[in-house]
Specification:
Layout (H helix, E strand, L loop, with lengths): L8 E2 L17 H6 L2 E7 L5 E10 L4 E10 L9 E2 L7 E6 L5 E6 L6 E6 L5 E2 L9 E4 L5 E8 L6 H13 L13 E2 L2 E2 L4 E10 L2 E8 L19 E3 L5 E7 L11 E7 L7 E2 L8 E6 L5 E6 L11 E6 L5 E4 L11 E2 L5 E5 L8 E5 L5 E5 L3 E8 L2 E8 L2 E9 L6 E2 L5 H4 L7 E7 L5 E7 L10 E7 L17 H5 L4 E6 L8 H5 L8 H16 L3 E11 L1 H12 L6 E5 L5 H7 L3 H7 L8 H6 L13 E6 L7 H14 L3 E6 L9 H19 L3
Parallel strand pairs: 34-35, 34-36, 36-37, 37-38, 38-39
Antiparallel strand pairs: 1-32, 2-3, 3-4, 4-5, 6-7, 7-8, 8-9, 10-11, 11-14, 12-13, 14-15, 16-17, 17-18, 18-19, 20-21, 21-22, 22-23, 24-25, 25-26, 26-27, 28-29, 29-30, 30-31, 32-33, 33-35
Length: about 675
């Protein structure tokens, strides 16, 4: 239980554009067409910065990305200029050691390859392999580059994998035979390939010869799938070794979270050596110290639990001794970057409804917020220069430059100014209340864009997924509260028990209790919000959620349906027991329910929404993607079937080409238009 109970309201700092007095609210067409800024990186001297700008071609129904560049030594206030030319769709920028050249991945040649562009020159293709380059990282001395490729384990070279893929493509039979899990993962069926780590020499700016495979005898993916990246591996400062994180698959991949960190010689002269074999939980994100004597990384302590706290670790590479850094800092670190003097670790973490950037003193463990308010989604550090991407509930991401201590912050990017000018964002506020067992629980309220004192407004009550996640002070391109505020709704959302950023005990508290403490928090939070904010019309409210939020909508339908005029369930679990067999990452369902469905059937049934369909009565919109293998299609179809057989007004929005998320621009517009129409339909009458 939290020690202090108090009711607070915090008005949070926003960029000026966030509360600009535009003449209309935010629309989904604004949302999908905003430029999206990410991946800021600095040259080693801290004088140059590049970042990715993703733009949307709405008619083509796709996004494309370029790099923006700024020389920080200039004193002009103009925003960064475009670096990469038209026709290049790029990602993953990095600088050469001397800062004169920018490297990136691009598909300009017809496959994803590594390119380089000297400042002021045209791009040059660095690699020309028969397979796509999945990720890369330049060696510190610039003589070689680490690359990852998806390859068949039996192949001795890249050409072998390409030939095998061509053969499969020409085969007239389509059956695929599986002997173990994963058979499918996230939105992709397995085809036997593994992402593996290689090193290629660089000669006169081009890759030379067949790359050398380093992940010898490693049955696992580097980077991890589906969301791993080049932070899963790192070069030693002398460019002679690499460290990487990987989960050895075997037959337990679908229910194991045991990632280990391996060290390997960069010439591939010997198999990798496991450095963290003693820890059977997740070890991730290796980073070498400047002298190469210490390896910093993040580690969980409980096998099988993906939402355990990532603690900061240091390993002496001479004797293998490990120590924990910042033991008392009860937050889960997202990554590791070292300060110039090697005395601090910079990392982001969920924190009380925000996602700040922290500096952690390695010796004392003291944690200090360097960039607070809002959500820092990416950053880089070079000398005394810091660059970071930050967004908020009132603004999409902007790129900021500051000193390493977080002072002298300035907005470098000034992005989306013209698109933001006519838009009035809804003002927002964080509040707290006494939730389950009188613990302090936090939430947010967002006013409609056209708020007028004394009037009441219909409410969209948003429920976050995860469930170990958070709806806080950040911008989303999918579940964005401002899209509802832009339609004239007030918005309320609660970080119930199980949410991240409030200490590990709070996060742990949801496991085995999906319909218990979180439901109490939602009920108490809703009651508190109605009492506190007189502009909320509690008689015209709908509850919405996706993933775990969709589960909770299904659970609410049978256990707390009285307040709601309508419900929206996106990719939500309907039958917990069947989901336990059908989902792909089994470690998640098995941890949350205390075991397998056959070993713990009562646990799966305890909070099973399918048990309470006889109590359903509120109109519900169900949304489901065919390519969703986390919460498979049958869960949405079953919920819609239950609604139809109960005679409850309902609709089913089906996307044959989307996964757990709705990503395509025109699909996103259809999703929002359908949801907004559903909300308006049921909340129009006071």
């Amino acid at each position: 239980m939290f020690a202090s109970i108090r009711s607070v309201a915090l008005i949070l700092a926003l960029p000026a554009a966030a509360f600009a007095q535009g003449n209309r609210g935010l629309d989904v067409r604004d949302l999908v067409n905003f430029d999206r800024l990410s991946s800021p990186v600095l040259s080693a001297d801290g004088q140059r910065v590049v970042y990715v700008v993703r733009m949307t071609d709405f008619d083509a129904n796709r996004g494309f990305s370029h790099l923006a560049y700024k020389d920080l030594r200039t004193r002009d206030l103009a925003p960064p200029a475009r670096l990469t030319p038209e026709g290049f769709n790029v990602n993953s920028p990095s600088f050469s050691g001397d800062g004169s050249t920018v490297y990136f991945l691009a598909d300009k040649s017809g496959s994803m390859q590594l390119w380089a562009q000297a400042i002021g020159a045209e791009p040059v293709q660095v690699t020309d392999y028969p397979l796509d380059v999945g990720s890369y990282k330049l060696a510190p001395d610039g003589s070689k580059v680490a690359l990852t490729f998806d390859v068949f384990p039996y192949c001795a070279d890249l050409t072998c994998t390409k030939a095998a893929l061509d053969k499969v493509a020409s085969d007239k039979s389509s059956g695929q035979l599986y002997e173990k899990l994963f058979a499918r993962h996230w939105d992709t069926w397995a085809d036997g390939r593994r992402s593996q780590l290689f090193v290629a020499r660089l000669v006169a700016g081009k890759s030379a010869g067949e790359p050398v495979k380093l992940s010898i005898n490693i049955d696992g993916d580097i980077p991890a799938k589906p969301f791993g990246d080049s932070s899963d591996y790192a070069w030693s400062p002398d460019s002679t070794q690499l460290a990487f994180s990987v989960r050895i698959a075997g037959t337990t991949e679908a229910w194991s979270t045991n990632f280990d960190i391996y060290r390997v010689a960069a010439d591939g002269s010997a198999p990798p050596v496991n450095l963290t074999a003693e820890n059977l939980a997740w070890d991730a994100g290796p980073v070498f110290s400047a002298d190469g004597k210490t390896l910093y990384y993040r580690a969980m302590s409980r096998p099988g639990f993906e939402a355990d706290r990532f603690q900061l670790m240091a390993m002496d590479l001479d004797d293998g001794d490990t120590s924990r850094i910042a033991k008392r800092w009860d937050r889960s670190a997202d990554g590791i970057a070292l300060s110039a003097d090697g005395r601090s670790i910079y990392t982001t973490a969920q924190d009380m409804g925000q996602h700040p950037l922290f500096a952690i003193d390695i010796k004392s463990g003291e944690a200090r917020r360097v960039a607070a308010d809002g959500s820092v989604s990416g950053f880089d550090l070079a000398g005394d220069t810091l660059v970071f991407a930050r967004d908020s509930l009132g603004s999409p991401a902007q790129i900021f430059v500051a000193r390493a201590d977080g002072s002298a912050v300035r907005d470098l990017s000034q992005a989306n100014a013209e698109r933001l000018a006519p838009v009035a964002m809804g003002a927002f506020e964080q509040f707290s209340f006494e939730g389950y067992d009188d613990d302090t629980v936090y939430g947010y309220v967002v006013k409609p864009w056209n708020y007028k004192a004394g009037e009441k407004y219909p409410v969209a009550f948003l429920i976050h997924g995860g469930p170990q996640g958070s709806f806080g002070n950040g911008w989303s391109t999918r579940w964005n509260p401002q899209t509802y505020a832009g339609q004239g709704f007030a918005v309320v959302f609660i970080d119930f028990h199980g949410s991240t950023g409030y200490g590990q005990d709070f996060t742990d508290s949801i496991s085995g209790d999906w319909g218990g403490k979180p439901l109490k928090d939602l009920q108490k939070g809703w009651s508190h919000a109605l009492d506190r904010y007189d502009f909320l019309d509690g008689k015209r409210a709908c509850a919405l959620g996706a993933s775990y939020g969709g589960f909770m909508v299904n659970w609410i339908a049978g256990n707390w349906n009285a307040p709601w005029k309508c419900l929206v369930n996106h990719d939500g679990i309907f039958d917990n027991r069947s989901w336990g067999y059908a989902t792909e990452e089994l470690w998640f369902s098995e941890w949350e329910n205390g075991g397998t469905p056959f070993a713990e059937p009562k646990a799966y049934e305890k909070f099973n929404p399918a048990r309470f369909v006889d109590q359903w009565q509120v109109p519900m919109l169900v949304v489901q993607g065919q390519l969703d293998y986390r919460v498979p299609f049958d869960q949405g179809m079953a919920a819609f079937t239950a609604l139809q057989r109960r005679g409850i007004e309902s609709r089913f929005l089906y996307f044959p080409d989307e996964n757990h998320w709705v990503l395509k621009p025109q699909n996103s517009v259809q999703w929002h238009d359908t949801v907004n129409e559903w909300l308006r339909r049921w909340t129009a009458v006071k």
